[in-house]
Specification:
The complex is a heterodimer of chains A (about 200) and B (about 210).
Chain A: H1 3-33, E1 38-41, E2 52-60, E3 63-74, E4 77-83, E5 89-96, E6 99-105, H2 112-125, E7 129-132, E8 137-140, E9 143-149, E10 155-162, E11 174-179, E12 182-187, E13 192-198
Antiparallel strand pairs in A: 1-7, 2-3, 2-13, 3-4, 4-5, 5-6, 8-9, 9-10, 10-11, 11-12, 12-13
Chain B: H1 2-23, E1 25-26, H2 29-45, E2 48-59, E3 64-75, E4 79-86, E5 90-95, E6 98-102, E7 107-111, H3 116-130, E8 140-146, E9 150-157, H4 160-165, E10 168-174, E11 180-186, E12 192-202
Antiparallel strand pairs in B: 1-8, 2-3, 2-12, 3-4, 4-5, 5-6, 6-7, 8-9, 9-10, 10-11, 11-12
The chains are: A alpha+beta (about 200), B alpha+beta (about 210).
Chain lengths: ~200, ~210
């Protein structure tokens, strides 16, 4: 292969990659931020001057982990931590625009599949996004969130439906309900229920 | 002018730091033996202990100080009731090798001897309360510091799993009664949990019902 041909292929490849990533960015932002009249949707009311404190339980089949979640909203990013009642930290996380990163996790829970599941569930639960008014769904990359707002503009219920490009919609993998400020999210795929109640 | 103010503030902070640091001095071998003997003596004569506690969790990344309060009951040999009353209800009972955990929605029971995690937690909790953790040299290496009114024992876990949870556990004993006054647990990343014990009742009758699991 001549040097000229090789360089042309490289140039074309780089352009495809750059064009592709800019498109991907656009799809993501179209779903969340493209409207002039936007609604901020969330399940929680974050206090201005302090952190959000939530009594938390995570139930898996017959077992249950309980503790406290402390979370803070800064711009569109939620940083949070879950600890048990004795103050021992189980994991910390950061969510932004439908994505979640597990920042640290207790060694006993440090498994890729646990982290992946937690990240996916927490991204959905702590979703904080500006969406166009009267829209009933948001699309973040490969996931569609269907939701309904209550009178105070908070999420009353939401469904998580995974999407794959070109394929039909799949069944919901999670359902969230907000009743009297208690948020219950059920991961129907793994049969895990998260319950969050604000600590007053 | 601002610069001068900053310097003055800095000097004040530094002098306070130095004063605090000067209060605690590394214990000599004789002092160390004396401390161990005092704690051991009080531990052997304490058949029960009841006190209020305040637990403060400091989370550096969230600039959070989360405070919870409750009551602790201890009865010889190894019965412990650790009860959180505010801002949440949570109960931990250890008795006869069994553990009961109760929160607002459910109650769970475990065998502390077959569950390694609960055995570890129980050993640390009871060890902190009655001071026997100081003699647990297989699991912790200890440094002793002496102040005017208190003695601080800074313990570093040797156990690999425990090390991942906490870098050090510091026990502060009052020289007045040689009982644990404060437990401070430092975590990797700078977060810490401080438990302060107040209103101590030593050898006061405590009903066995408080430790009932079944």
């Amino acid at each position: 292969m001549s040097t000229k041909r090789f360089l042309t292929i490289c140039f074309v490849s780089i352009n495809i990659v750059l064009f592709g990533s800019s498109c991907a960015q656009k799809i993501s932002s179209n779903g969340a931020n493209s409207s002039t009249s936007a609604n901020e949707i969330s399940c929680f009311i974050f206090p201005d001057s302090s952190n959000l404190r939530l009594r938390t339980t995570i139930s898996i089949k017959d077992a249950q982990i309980s503790g406290i979640t402390i979370a803070k909203l800064k711009q569109d990013t939620v940083t949070g931590m879950f600890m048990n009642e004795f103050g021992i930290k189980s994991f910390s996380f950061q969510t932004s625009e439908g994505n979640c990163k597990i920042l640290s996790i207790l060694s006993k829970l440090d498994k890729w599949y646990i982290k992946r599941m937690l990240a996916s569930d927490l991204a959905f639960i702590f979703m904080e996004a500006n969406v166009p008014e009267n829209r009933q769904f948001i699309i973040y990359n490969s996931t569609k969130f269907q939701y309904e707002l209550n009178n105070s503009g908070k999420i009353a219920w939401a469904k998580r439906i995974p999407l794959t490009s070109g394929a039909k919609e799949k069944e919901a993998t999670g359902v969230l309900k907000n009743s009297n400020d208690t948020i219950i999210f059920r991961n129907s795929k793994h049969n895990i229920t998260y319950t969050f109640t604000p600590i007053k | 002018m601002k610069f001068v103010k900053c310097i003055v503030c800095l000097l004040c902070l530094l002098s306070t730091g130095i004063a605090n640091a000067e209060n605690l001095k590394s214990a000599t071998e004789t002092q160390k033996q004396e401390i161990k003997s005092n704690i051991s003596k009080i531990s052997s004569t304490t058949s029960s202990l009841q006190c209020n506690f305040t637990q403060k969790k400091e989370i550096s990344v969230l600039a959070e100080k989360f405070v919870s309060e409750g009551i602790m009951y201890f009865k010889k040999q190894n019965s412990l009731r650790w009860q959180y009353d505010t801002p949440y209800k949570y109960l931990f009972i250890l008795s006869g090798g069994k553990v009961l955990i109760k929160n607002e929605s459910r109650t769970d029971k475990f065998d502390a001897n077959t569950n390694k995690l609960f055995r570890g937690i129980s050993e640390i909790m009871i060890g902190c309360v009655n001071g026997t953790m100081l003699t647990n040299e297989n699991k912790f290496s200890s440094q002793y510091y002496v102040g005017q009114n208190t003695v601080v024992v800074k313990m570093t876990p040797k156990d690999k799993e425990l090390k991942k949870m906490m870098t050090t556990v510091s026990l502060t004993f009052s020289k007045k009664d040689w009982l644990v006054q404060t437990i401070e647990m430092m975590e990797q990343g700078g977060d810490k949990t401080i438990i302060n014990f107040t209103t101590k009742h030593v050898n006061k009758a405590i009903s066995d019902d408080l430790f009932r699991i079944n």
